[in-house]
Each structure stands twice: as structure tokens, then as C-alpha cells.
User: Fold these one by one.
Assistant:
Number 1:
Amino acid sequence: MLYINCPHCGLRSQNEFAYGGDATVKRPELNKEISDQEWDNFVYLRKSPRGKHLELWHHISGCRQWIKVERDTSTHEIFKTYKANEAIE
Amino acid sequence: MSQDFRLDNVGMVNREKKISFKFNGKKYFGFEGDTIASALIANGVHLVGRSFKYHRPRGFFGVGVDEPYAILQLDRNNERDPNIRATEQEIFEGLEVKSVNCWPSVNFDIGAINNFLKMFFPAGFYYKTFMWPPSFWYKIYEPFIRMAAGFGEASIKHDKERYEHKYEYCDLLITGSGPSGLASAYAAAKNGARVILAEDKPRFGGSLLTSDVNIGNQTGVEWTEKIIAELKSMPNVTVKNRSQVFGYYDHNMLVMSERISDHLPKTQKYLPKQRLWYIRANEVLISSGSIERPLVFGNNDTPGVMLSSAAKEYMKVYGVLVGKKPLIFTNNDSGYETAIEFKKNGVNPIILDTRSDPSSDIIAEAKNLNIEIKFSHVVVAAKGYKKVKSADIAKISDDKKELFNIENIECDCICVSGFWTPSIHLASQSGNKSKFNEKIDAFVPDKSKQKENTIGSANGIFTLEETIKDAFDKGFDVSNKITEKNNKVSVPTVVEKKSTDHDKFWCVPLPKGKSYKRFLDFQNDVAVSDIELALREGFRSIEHVKRYTTLGMATDQGKTSNLNGLQLVSDIENKVVPQVGHTTFRPPYTPVSIGAIVGREVGKHSKPTRKSPMHSWHEKNNAVFVDAGVWLRPRYYKQGNEGLFEASKREAKNVRQNVGVCDVTTLGKIDVKGPDAAEFLNRVYTNAWLKLPVGKARYGVMLREDGIVMDDGTTTRISKNHYHMTTTTAQAANVLSHLEYYLQLVWPELNVNVVSTTEQWAGAAIAGPNSRKLLMKLFPNLDVSNEGLPFMGYKEADLFGVPAKIYRISFSGELAYEINVESDNGYFMWEKIMEVGKEFQIQPYGTEALSTLRIEMGHVAGSELDGRTIPYDASLEGLVSKKKDFIGKRSLNRSAFTSTDREKLVGVVPIDKTTSIPEGSYIVKDPKAKLPNPKLGHVSASCWSVEHDNPFSLAIIKDGKNMIGQKLFAMSPLKNKTIPVEIVSSHYVDPEGKRVRS
Ligand SMILES: [Zn+2]
């Protein structure tokens, strides 16, 4: 079970969180004309990297904040966690 | 029966307390502190089971977790427990155990015929035998395998025992209380660290209990007692016996199973049977010790052949002799220690040493005691069927290839020692890639993967002096990283007998003309010949050899067989062991009971139960409840002999004719607040929200980004910047996460807050033509006329002194209102509604009537919004704004979503107007068409229409709107029904929607 350092609450067990997928995906702006390809990339296409991955976690049984977690997908090592609006190093 | 093999005044069992127990129905005596194994051996019993494949007789091989043979079935307090290791289970008064894998009895076992048919049970026999013809699988092969497989029978009864889970945090977890565990725990605890020391056995000390050593001028046992007593007195230390750390998981989470009551006749009143500890440790020191390795020779599975360290422990801890004419077969000095112990207890052992001329302190001591030693000698084969009676021994050439002078000598046990294998399981589970240590012919942990270090013999350190020094250092270093107290205790002096190198020889060649089975895996009956065959058949990867032969795949996970198996493969392949590599160690290290894993989460505790504030009223009024997620909701209120069908029909009919009241507390409620709330809702919902006036509600549909409907519900503008959103019961949590996602990550510039208020409000929906009259009486000072409180209107008012919110919304299609009061006032509100409603023939209605009402109105719910429908499919196109953008809108342009033959919502009525259509039925054109019959769609929800008094269903079918009027068929292969139906509009009641606006 992972041990995730919520930037708002501190170290908490994985079972307080829900996984939220790739944190680098950016939603296209509203009312902006975009191609089917761009939209499909946003809705469906995700990379599945082996190694460092910036991902979203939602602290659902804690502060209810969405946070960003930099994690190694093969070793589960967590390098850093960020608040939703924090700049990623 | 007397304890003929019990020594006087030796060992640690409590002679004051005699305990009786039954094995295979026969009564025996032992002492408090005995295991089943030690007590049976004391009584001269060695035949306890039959092997898995050949049903060969099985005795005891070890003395602890590594035991491959003595797996028994236990009956305790009317509970049945399989897979009990006799070497670990302590006896208690009234204990009953029996053998497994034998029928009719362990002495006469029919399955033993497999032993004579063993040419038919080669490696991979399951793959080879049960192949053809396929028709044999069901009736012949599967029942045969099922009958033959498994050790013991699990109970099918509900386990009434209590199991608990505990979560713990510590600076340092130490797994094992042998010399290294004790030393490191002491050093770390003295340095201020929070320490948990776990020992799987009842007694602390590990090898110190049986070795003849001296630490700080004390015997091993005395030193152990002193350290344990001091650790127990320290507030920063938790010391646990009978506790096995069996799993090492991510981020230094370890799981330990504590056997609290297994050694007692009955679980004590306020204690669980077992407790599972989830331990998050800053650092871990693995001190799990090592397990003696067997030597391989003919019939080496005969009862009476056992590990030499086990024989020593039976003597020193339990005061029990495993035999009176012991043969010690060793390739290192450990066998000598056992021989010396026998000698001290008045028994004359014979040592067969594979080495030609070793010398050390221990060997010298054995010689001084006049113990008979035969160098360059081996056991060729054990003789005797149910117990060792003699052994064929021989002199072996220096190259270990040839045998000379084979002779038979009498013996009643053969104690083997093939050196030691570190228990690296936990380190390996943590992700630590092990490395091969040539000096000890075994794998040891390599670089730490997580925050773990391995110490003592688990790390391949086999001298006590080195072990103690290293463990004191590690205990200090690791704790000092955390506490920084620099409080270092001094290392005690250690006196031990020096030993010399072991012999790498481990497998005795077969004499000419003999074909003895030489076993590697004792639990799964894997012999040398099986591995040889697998390699001849082309298996190369050790992972494949393992699965093909089942080597190391039994419940003991090959604790005694792994290395010899690897050694054999590398010998045949002319490789060295590290090239062959080893298979992966996975948790659990030892079997864990299902009860411990489940803990208290059983029955009604398996999930939380949510009840509305009106729950007790429903109970008192014969409500039959249904699970709605974790909520309990009244399904119907039973009157007289009514069943579900009659009751729900009556309740629904009463709504259509008079007035009904339904508990809608479970609907998700979310407060949306802030200056940008309208803009936010406008982006979340598919329809327009910017112009909703204060005091008005609106129905809305929200999509996921892929265009699929996520949820629907009404949202009301309470004040300028405050909206009250409702969601379906099932989606409440997901919708909140969804909203938070967009507010926190996508549009953080929007000044909006959302919070769940589901539990703050109790809700009652009143519906039916009499509902306005009822409302007038409930709120006499409020204008509830169609003008004063129009459809989709909202008012705040006072309900007999209690503040209430009234929403004029309808799910049933009738004139209806929903009243919310603070949860604490819910029961009061409900009683008032029932009291005042009496004169209007009010009746409560449950979820079944609620469904009926919404189905015949054609309102969609979860069964239509099933994660596949877009708004157009559910006749919700009127709610999709063409002008503004919203979540998921771009997806609605995708070609699959704009195609004209998408499945759409329709109504379905059986032609005979009597046969109900099963939910899930397929709609087809021709019921006799060749399979697979092309389906037009499926029936999503069915009810008995109370308006028309005939069955009615909703269905989602291809080109739905154009199918109206067509005669088709509903087919349910599951229910074996084919029903002629007519497709009609989904709005089966009041299609113009006049009633809700009346
Ligand atoms: Zn948090």
C-alpha cells in the first residue's frame, strides 16, 4: 500500500486516495475549434510510461483536494507531491 | 499412552501441566508448551500423513514454519481448520487433530497405490494425462483431480471467531527474535527508537534456545530472557510472540499475523482469535534466520528422516527424542551439535560426514565424547516404509561419484544437515534482488530496495560473534538516522565453538541397478528424476521447470526444497546456480487464514450502512428494505399478505389516484456556492443555466468528456450565489469528485465552492393529485397555488415550527413536491405528513413503486443511463444546448454518436397485455432467426403500469423513434421466454406532461 504525502494533510495511506490518471493532460479550452484528432487525444489517448509519471490523486477520504504525484510506475517510488496549482519542477 | 521418548528434566515445557489431546481419534498426553509435533514424537508417533501425489507415508521433517509434511486438520471449539502445521500448533486441553490426504486412514491409505503407479505420475503429469478427449473433462478428470487435491477440508460454516485488524507505525520493525533480532532491537530501543520486535514462535530467542554459547557471561537462554524482559519494560518497544511478519509491501508496509488464541481451547471473551497488523515502518531489519538444507538420498522422505537442527530443538526445547538409534548425516559441523546433544542425553548416535577429514572445535568435542564418526560416508537409502528401520550407507569416493562398501545399519531416525539457507523471502518481497554467496552456496539479499536491511544468518552470517556485533551496529545506525540520540550501548563478549567449512556435496548418487526416489520437494512429491525429465523435455527457465514439476509450489513455498532444486538444474545444465537464478518469492511467507485477512469486515460490517432519519418509522410500518449502494431504502411497505408485486402496485396506484410520500433523503445533494456558480453550472450541465432566476429549479443532465451521460437531477437557485444541486443516489460521490476536479484543476479561476450536503437534509417527496391539498394543510400560511408555487418553483416555509424547503419537482409525473428539513427534524416532518395526509388517503411508497411511476412516465434512470447512452439516446435532446460549450459537448460530434441508427429509448407493451417482459430481454424481429439472432436492442426496465393495468417496459433499440407501432419480439434466453410485443412511445402516461404543471 502506497504512502502518499498529501501537500495539505501530510503522509496518508493509499486507501484514503482515488487515482486520477495522467496529470499532464490539459483540457482543450472551452468554445475553441479543435480537430477530432486533438479531442480524441485528450479524451482517450494516454501514455503508459515505465518509470517517472506525473499523476493525479484525489484525497477523497481526507481534504478532498486533487493533488499531483510524481511516481515511478515500476518501483512505486514517490519523488514529490504537488498541490493542484503548484508549479511542477 | 506413555511418553516413551520424553527426556527427564530437559527442555522448556511445563511438566506441571499435563495436557490431553486427540490425534486421529486416539488420546495422547503432552505438556503445556508442546506443539502437536513434539507431543506426538514424545509418544513415539511419527506417521502423521500421506504425501500429495504418491500418498507415501509422512512424518515430521522440521520444527517450525518450514515443515513440509505434518499438515493436519484441526477441530477447535466446533470449528474446522485445515492446513495446520503440527510443528507450530501448540497443544491445549481437548485439542483434536487428524491427518489429511489419506483414506480411509493414515495407516491404510488406498491412494498409496499411486506409489506403485509412479511411472504414470511423471513431471507434468497433469498436463500430459488430462488432455483428451475433451468430453472427459467434466465427468471424469475434474472430479478426479478435485478428489485427489488439497490438504484438508475448509469449513463451509460461518466462522464465528473474531479477527481484528490493527494499524501501527514504528521507527523500526524487526522480524525475528534470534540473536541478531534481539541485539538490534536492544541497540535501537536504547537509542530511543520506537521498535516492534516480532517473533513467530511462542518462545523468543531463535537459535539461542538450542545453541551452546555464551553471551556476556550468560547462556543464550539467560541472555534472551534478560534482553526480552528489558525490552518489554520500555515504553518505546512492542514485543510480540506468535506473530509472523509474512508480507513486505510497497513503501515499507509490512503485514504481520498475530495468533492470539490459537493455542487456547477457546478464544477469550474480549480477545480476537487472530490479529492482522498493518505496520508502516520507517526502517526494517530482517532477522528471519536461516533454514537447514536437506541432503538428498534414496527414500529421503521416509518418516524418521528429518533436519538435524529439528532433532536438536526437539531435545533442547521440548525434551523429546526423535529416536533412540539416531544416524546423523551431515556435510558440515551442524550435525555434530545434534550428535553431541544426543550423547549428552544418553543416546549413542553415529555420524556420517561427507567430508574426508575435517577438523574444528565441535568435531574435536564429538571425538572426545567417543561419538562414532564415519568420514567420507553417505546414506544411500533409508529403509522402512512407515518409519525408518535401517539405512544403506556407503563410503563415497573423493570426487563424490562412486559408492563403495554398501552396508545396512540399523537406525530409527536419520538427522540430515546439508548446511543452511538464509530466509531471504521478506527481503526479496521488498524488491531486493538477491545475490549468490559462493561461500555458503545460497542466495543472500543484495542492495536494499526499500528501507530494509537483513542481519544475522538471514544475511548469511553464521558465526554468533559476527552476528551480534553486526546487529548491534545496525540497530544503532538505523535508529540513529531517526532519533539522532547517539546513545550507543556496548557489545557483549561472545563465546562460541568454532566450526569449519562445509562440503558442497548435497545429492547422493544412485547405486548401480537401484532406482530409489530421491525427493527434492517433500510436500509436492517432486523427485530428482522429475527435474531430470523436465529438462530432457526441453524446459530451461527455472520459472518453467518450477511450474511444470510443481517444485516449490506447495504451501511451504519450497522453504526446504528451493536451493537443492536450483543446484540440480545447474548441475545438469553445467551452469552455476546464479546463472540459473531463482524463482520469485511472493507473500505470504506462511499461510494466513482467510479470517485474519477479512478481519471484522464480515456480514453487516463488510460495508457501512446508511439510514435516513426516518428509518425507524419505516421499520415500524413494515417496510421491506433494499440496498441502494450503502443506503437502506424501503422497497415497499407490506400490508397483510402482500408480496412485492401487490404492495408496489397498490402504492403506485395510490400516488396516481390520491397522494403518496416517499423518503428521498438518499438523493445526493451538493451545495454550489460562489459568484461564478451560474457559469460553472453552465459548463457542467448540457443545458443553459445563466438565466435561472432565484427561487427556481431546473432539470439538468451532465456528461463525461466522452459524451456519455454521467448523471441527471434538478438544481435550484436558492439565492444569487447559492445553488442546491441534487444527484442520483448512486452517482452522488462521483459527481462531487467530478465537480471538484473541474474547479481545482481545469477552471481554478472560477470562484465556486462545492460541498456535499446529502446528510444534512432529510427529504420527503409527496406526489399525487391530492398533494397540493396536503401541502396547504402542512403550510397554511404559504401560497401554494399554481401561481404562488408553480412547477419548478422553490419556497422556504415553516413546517409546524421547523424550517423547511419546498421544491416543486416531480419524478412520478404527478403533481408533486419535495420537502427538505434538517436531518434532525426528518422524523418529525414524516410523522406530520402522515398525520395531516390521512384525510387525503396518503400512503408511503417505496423504491419499487417509485420505479413503476418513473418507468410508465418514461423518465430515464440508472438502467437507461448505464454508461453507454448519450443524451440523444435517452430522448434528452431538448436539454442539449446548441449555443454554449459544456463538458463532453465536443464528443457528441463524433460519427458514432451522430449516426442515425443508434439505439434509442422507446416503450414496449406485450401484445397479450398480461405477460411481463423480463429486464435484459433482447428485442428481435424474428424469434426463429438463426443464432446469433441480430438484436435491435434491450429491455432496460419493466413494471406493471398502474395507469393502464398491464405490463410496460422501457427499451433502448436501434432507430427507436421509427420503430414505434411495430410488432416485434422480446426474447429472454435466460428465462426461456419469447414474448410478442408492440413498440410504443416511452411516455406511457400523460405524454403532454399536464399533470406536473396542474
Ligand atoms: Zn489531503
Number 2:
Amino acid sequence: MQNKLLQVKNLKKQFQVAGGMFEKKEFVNAVIDVSFEIKEGTTFSLVGESGCGKSTTGRLITRLIDPTSGSITLNGNEVGYLKQSELGDLRETVQMIFQDPYASLNPRMKVKEIIEEPLIIHTKLSKGERENLVLEMLNIVGLNTEYANRYAHEFSGGQRQRIGIARALITKPKLIIADEPVSALDVSIQSQILNLLKKLQQEYQLSYLFISHDLSVVEHISNEIGVMYLGSIVEIATKEALFVNPLHPYTKALIASVPVADPLLRRKKETLKGDIPNPKNPPTGCTFHTRCPIAQELCKLEVPKMRQITEQQSVACHFVEKIEEV
Amino acid sequence: MNENVLEVINLETIFKRDQQEIKILRGVNFSIQRGEVLGLVGESGSGKSITSLSIMKLFHGTSGEIKNGSISFHGTDLTKLDEASMRQLRGKKISMIFQEPMTSLNPVLKIGKQLTESIEMHMKLTRKQSTAHAIKTLKSVGIGRAEELMNEYPHQLSGGMRQRVMIAMAMACEPELLIADEPTTALDVTIQAQILELMKQLKEKNDTAILLITHDLGVVAEMCDRVVVMYAGQVVEEADVFELFANPKHPYTKGLINSVPKIGDRKEVLDSIPGNVPSPQNMPQGCKFAPRCSNAMEKCHEHEPEIETITESHFCSCWLYASKEVALHAK
Ligand SMILES: Nc1ncnc2c1ncn2[C@@H]1O[C@H](COP(=O)(O)OP(=O)(O)O)[C@@H](O)[C@H]1O
Ligand SMILES: Nc1ncnc2c1ncn2[C@@H]1O[C@H](COP(=O)(O)OP(=O)(O)O)[C@@H](O)[C@H]1O
Ligand code: SF4
Ligand code: SF4
Ligand SMILES: [Mg+2]
Ligand SMILES: [Mg+2]
């Protein structure tokens, strides 16, 4: 049995966006109800359209921000409410990789300084030991060790992402939270980075929380997937179940919307109508009811509960069984 | 008879930097027929956007300049037109939409005003007629509350809505050629699907020729009739869309197609193309793709291949398909 490395339960995050002493308070419900777990050495992905709360979930788990409620347990220990001063272990165990490696790397730092920095913060290693580790990391992520003394701005997008990965891996973390790590890259380079992430996972038994809006990338890299809409997970399933037999109407629509790189499979699309609602003012009941092709009266009134349909698949929709019939 | 709306012949565009001319487009050739969607694909930095800006002659604020070649629009060579004549064409006969809608929307003008101004100017209609036409156009791009929207500012709209307004603006004067540079790259997939569907419908209705620039091969497969693959400022392959995906010839095209992860495809390791697009200041000699090409031969590093005819509608520039041999330099 694989160990559960991370468990997230009923996680919730509200941001206050207006309101002071005399003003009415206004909130964005960035994350409303998110629960999932990640087993050791596996990849769990969060997928969904922009603003659905994927990055906020990632930032909550790394404790860059504090949860409003819910729980986050890492190796069985609750970490959701630790004080910043108590986060030492978490910072070593959990590392992040970002979409835009350039924005997340300091342009005035040399490559070796960027990669070394987490060691200075989290370990008591000597300068010599740190430098050896940096050179080892450069090799591991496929960068020439001669690059150590160059600056990040001299590198292409794919190379910068390799630098970002080296920096994230140097403290030997268990969990990597990768927030749209290949979204800014050309497909030819994107595949290099995806291959590297897979290879590293096998070699170091890493777990990934992979955040992406791109379903084809998610299918390639994941073991399990959570589909998010307006702050909640609406379907959670193994990769095989999700792509072969998507159950939630939103999952179906998402998969159907992806343009397929084969003109022989061209077809007229049943496109979802309308825009994603504003998370300041989400729809009542099932938040998807304003765009759902099979919504009923009940959907406006009651929030559907997450229900397990098969061993591999759980869905939050009042009418899943109906969908299966038609 | 098929009629070419646009013919780009041997287009060379340069930028000046420190008294030096940097060649960005190194002889680009393609044409688009009425009612046809031509895809222009390639990695970032290959010159797709500069091609579109060259056609529109939108170089202000940059050192860009067309150095050679011709761009024939219904027989008129655009490279010879002055700015005043170009302004007559832009927004009327040739329109452009961008990845970022705010590039073409004015943030301080209400949507209605922006639309009617251009309609009044190009279509010679009265204020009242223009307003009616603007509302009709907004409705045609799937905006239900068009009347209301006329009184709103761009920042009040969602990304997808802005993109639709920009398309409405581009289509308002029923252009013969629409240039769409990564029109859906910044959008979510469900909104992208709406916008692509909309572009198809508008094309069917008006027989518009579309130059669709994208790095997304899924969008190409879904939308295009014919495809031009660009690399390092040149066309390396051109083919009918079905032919291109079924039978790609150029190693670069093959590399691109094989790099795309596909839903339902259980490949453990994805193909990729090693290395990066060369920078215009540092172009390799010979075939520009040679440093990244697993098929590269000695002659590839010395001589540029010429464009060869594979079939009547399939062209490729690669030594693997050359009809002529070339003498190698004695070492
Ligand atoms: N610091 C913040 N303050 C206010 N609102 C925020 C903040 N961070 C995120 N949000 C809002 O929360 C929602 C979810 O955002 P995010 O988690 O970034 O979504 P995703 O990563 O899925 O695109 C969005 O509506 C976003 O605008
Ligand atoms: N204003 C400019 N000045 C100098 N070089 C430029 C300018 N704009 C683009 N380039 C260069 O031209 C090349 C092609 O760019 P572009 O057409 O934008 O590529 P694509 O659209 O295919 O990603 C790139 O090497 C880019 O750096
Ligand atoms: S609960 Fe209702 S509105 Fe929500 S997805 Fe299911 S059918 Fe659609
Ligand atoms: S000409 Fe040579 S280097 Fe260039 S693509 Fe063809 S085989 Fe590769
Ligand atoms: Mg995000
Ligand atoms: Mg571009």
C-alpha cells in the first residue's frame, strides 16, 4: 500500500477584497470546498479554467497563505494552522515550481546562487557541500554545469524552467507543487520538461500536485485528477476513469472543448454557453447550473454532495445517474 | 477559378539595431484564397507575428522595415502603398485580431463609440445606421445584451467577452482578409471553443479569407484548410491540413506534431525537439534547423535547402527531399 503523503479536507479560502471600518465587507470565495489526497510517488492534478482556485489551493498547501477553514495534513500531521515560525519542516518537504520561471527567479542572481539559496535557508551545509550539490542538481535537470556562473536572463524558457526545477529539488523534498509549469512553453520544449518531471519522479519517489488548465498535459502526467469549478472539486477520479468515462457535465464539456491535433477527428462542438460566473457572487446551489446543459430546478437550490460512484470515481452532481442512462 | 486574396512573395523584413540590420523574415512565401483558412504555425520567435505585422505594415514605434519582396492584396502591392492608403485598408478590407484584446480596444472609449467610429469611417453610414450595424455585429458574435454593452467600457468585460468584441470590431466592415494572431491563446478552453466556432461561422457567411496564426496544433487541425510551417523566418513546409498531419515531411514539422500530448494516447515518454529556435543575430549557416535535426547531414550544415514540390499542393524545404545534389566544400 502506498502511503498517503498529503491529505486535504474541506479546504476553504476567502479573500476579503473590500470593506474597512465603515464599508460593507466583500469576499472572494477562491476555494470553497476542496478535498483530496496524494499518495507517495504519485501525481495528483488539479485542472479547471482560470479563476477556479487551483493556484490558491497550491498556495494554501505551501502555507504561503492561511486557510479560512479545513485541514491540511502532511505525513499525518496537521500543518494548516502552524505559525510561520513552525514551518521549517514543511518548507523542506514541500517545494513549488511556477509557470513563469523568469518571474520567479531573481535576474540579478547567478544560476548557482538561485539553486543554492534554499540550502542556505533550510540547512547547515558548508559552502563546499552546497556547491557540490548545486553541480549535481544541474546535471540531474540536464543543464551544462558551465551555466552555473551565468544569469537567469541569458536562458530560454525551457532552460529557466530547468533552473526552477533544480532549485525546487535541491532540498530533497517529498512533494512538489507545480503550478502551470509548462503553460508558457512551446510544445516542443513542454515535452522535454514533462519527460524530465516524470523521470525525476521515478528516481526520487516524488509526489506531485500538478496544477494546469491543459487537459492533454494533465492526462499525460497524472495518476489521479480533480476537476475544479468555481472553488470546488466537482469530479475526482483516476486518469483512466476520467478520460474514458467523464461523469460530471462540466468535465464532459471541458474534455469536449479541447481541440484535437488531428483533422480527421474534426467535429462540430457542443460548446458550453456563457461565461464563468464571478467568484465574488457565485450562483446558488450547484455553481455550474448557469451553464449546465442538464440543470434542473433542484440544482439552483441545493449544493450537490460529492458521491463515490465507482472505486475510481467520485462526482458532485445531483443527476449523475441520469447522465449515465442517456 | 480560385482567387488569391493575398499573395506574399519572397518577403524580407528587417529590424535595425545599433546601425545593423537584423533579418527577421528571410524570404516568406504563401498565398490565401477567398474563403480559405490558412494556418501559420511554428515555435515562438519563428516570425509569425512579424509576418502579420508586415502585411498590415504596422511597424510604428519599432525599427521594422520591409526590405524585399511583395505583398499583393487583390493585385495591389501593399509594400508600395503609403500610410494614408494603408489606413484606408486596415479595419475595412483587412482586419486584425490579437491575443490580447486590449491591443486593439481603447480603454477610455465606450464599446459603442469604438465600433461606430470605424463603421462610420469605412462604410460611409450615418450615425444612426452605424449604431444599428454595430449592434447587429455584436449580436452576430453571440453577445446577447448588445444594446447594453454599447455603453460599457472594455475593462467592465470578461476576457472572453472582450475577445468577442474585438472580433466584432474586426468583422464589422466585412473584411476580405482577417489576420488572427493567437486569437484564443489567452482564453480558457470552453471559451476558446466558442470563439473558434464563431470564427468558422463568420467565415462561412462572408467568405472571408483568414490567416490564423497559432502555436497550437489542435487549433490548426480544427480550423485550417491549409498550413504553412515557419521556422527561423522562413516557410519550411506547406500542405493541405489533412496531408500535413497524415504525412508530414519536414523533420521540424514531424517534431512539432509528435511533441503534442494527445488525450487517449498512453505514451510514457513524449517526443521533443532538442535545443531552441536560433536568434536572428545568430543564424546558423546552411539549414537553420540543422543544429536541432536528428536527420542532419554534412551538406545541411553548409547549404540551405530550397523549397521542393512533394505533390501539387505539398511543399517542403529539406535536403532529404531535394531533387538536385550539391557539391560539398572540400575540407
Ligand atoms: N490574494 C487574493 N486576493 C483576492 N482575490 C484573490 C487572491 N488570490 C486569488 N484571488 C481570486 O481567487 C480566485 C481563484 O484564483 P486562483 O486560485 O488564482 O485561480 P486559478 O489558479 O485556478 O486560475 C480568483 O477569482 C482570483 O481572482
Ligand atoms: N520590435 C522588434 N525589434 C527587434 N526584433 C524583434 C521585434 N519584434 C520581434 N522581433 C524578433 O523577431 C523574431 C520573430 O518574432 P515574432 O514574429 O514575434 O515571433 P512569433 O510570433 O513567431 O513568436 C524574434 O526573434 C523576435 O525577437
Ligand atoms: S448538479 Fe445540476 S447543474 Fe450541477 S452539474 Fe449536476 S445537473 Fe448540472
Ligand atoms: S535540410 Fe538537413 S538539417 Fe535541415 S531539416 Fe532537412 S535533414 Fe534536417
Ligand atoms: Mg493559477
Ligand atoms: Mg507571435
